[in-house]
From TrEMBL:
Keyword Nucleus: no
One protein family per Pfam: ACPS
Every 4'-phosphopantetheinyl transferase domain range: 127-230
UniProt-listed GO biological process terms: lysine biosynthetic process via aminoadipic acid
Keyword Transferase: yes
Top-rank taxon, per record: Bacteria
Keywords of the record: Transferase
Stated name of the protein: 4'-phosphopantetheinyl transferase superfamily protein
Organism: Segnochrobactrum spirostomi
GO molecular function: holo-[acyl-carrier-protein] synthase activity; magnesium ion binding
Gene Ontology cellular component list: cytosol
The 4'-phosphopantetheinyl transferase N-terminal domain, residue ranges: 41-120
Family membership noted in the UniProt record: Belongs to the P-Pant transferase superfamily. Gsp/Sfp/HetI/AcpT family.
Amino acid sequence: MAMGVQTERISGSPPPGEREISVWTLPTDIMAAADGPRLSAVLDEGERARANAFRLEDDRLSYCLAHGLLRRALSTLSPGIPPSAWRFERGPHGKPHIAGPIETDLAFSLSHTRGLVAIALARGLALGVDVEADSRDVNGVEIATRFFSRDEANALRALPAETCPRAFLALWTLKEAIVKASGRGLTQDLSSFTVELDRPPRIASHDASLADASRWRLWHARTGRHHLALAALDADPEHWTIVHRRLAGWDSPVH
């Protein structure tokens, strides 16, 4: 039976004919090991090989669910193209993009972690999305001191112990989303730019390796026990709106 979907308009109020950044999230606990073959059926040979490389069944299912959801989302926006037909290539720094079967300006980003998968889609934008579980046992200050900017590490160090872990994960997901959107991925130095957790979050400073801060639009939210972050270039709120679709099940109808 089809399960429901909650749709939330996050920000922006463009006029009719609006341009939309669509963020889809889906919990992984709805799936069981028996669902693996059904999910992998829409994947290509390379995706199935990467899925089978995961040692743990939960990780394998999360991968299949994320990549299957991406294919379903792309087909929802491109009626007539079956989910299994999409083909992908990777750029010089590993960022995936659509290679067929049609020419399209659709851009996407995907992320998956234990418990949740996320997809972001829009037309003609550079996008990055990231999710992390809130329950991750990490020393945020230590990691930030090694890899983040000095200002970010100092800001975390100044926080009370009870709020620091969540602030760290908010920063982590935002920075991961930014480097995905930049196209440079792991080659982008995480200490080369500073994110401030304002409402909305923003890039406070950066070096020449990153696009100007005024061009970035950032969004962060908690969804259940997870942190969800989005980064997009040139998506000003007057012309672009962010819509978060929380799917309750694989078969949830989406419009």
